[in-house]
Amino acid sequence: MNASAAASAQGLGRWLLFIHQLPPKPDYLRVKVRRRLQRLGAVPLKSTVYLLPNRDDAIEDFQWLLNEVVSEGGDATICAANLLSGLSDEDAEHLFRSERDADYVELARSADAVAVTTPGASDEMMRLKRRLESIHAVDFFGATERRQAEHALSMLEHRLQPAVEAQERSKPAERPSGATWVTRKGIFIDRIASAWLIRRFIDPAASFRFVEATSRRKAGEIRFDMYGGDFTHVGDQCTFETLLDAFALADQQLGAIGEIVHDIDLKDAKFERDETEGVAAVIRGIALGNDDDQERLEQGALVFDSLYRQLQHSHRIAAE
Question: How many Cβ atoms sit within 10 Å of the Cβ of residue 5?
Answer without folding.
Answer: 13
